[in-house]
């Protein structure tokens, strides 16, 4: 038959089927507002869980407090030793510096957790707007897939027209007996 027809049948049909699947998925996302809510719920729940892990009374902060107490005990021990052995003075300074570093880091962690909590509160307050924005993004994706499907259909139509034209040209060139 024609040179254009087999390639048109395989490539264009496969491309069109893939496009149909992507378009269907995009439309399902665009028409299901629950997906936007679910995505936002997952984000809020994940952020809440992460922030709770760094709260003032959290397990990790209790561990940090325990480490600070251990550092302070080491400093106190070094101070006791330094009274009779001057070589321990450097150890006193070392433990003092470590205590300061960990207290500062603890405060910075708590401060950042508080800032993140404020952002989470803002996000929660603007939930409806954010859900609408997510839904809008899904509609945009559906539009792009529809435009792509239109382009694929045009390409397939052109390939089919070319195949028909090739067949007609071959028919004309066949001698009639």
Lay out the secondary structure.
Elements: H1 4-30, H2 33-52, H3 59-84, H4 89-125, H5 127-173
Helix pairs in contact: 1-5, 2-4, 2-5, 3-4
Please summarize what this structure is.
This protein has 177 residues and is mainly alpha-helical.
Describe the structure.
The chain has 177 residues and is an all-alpha fold. It has one domain (4-172). 89% of the residues lie in helices and 0% in strands. It is built from 5 helices and no strands. The relative contact order is 0.16.
Q: What are the main properties of this structure?
A:
89% helix; elongated; mainly alpha; 5 helices; 177 residues
Helix content: over 70%
Overall number of strands: 0
Cα Rg: 34 Å
Largest sheet: none
Described by the principal axes of the CA atoms, the overall outline is elongated
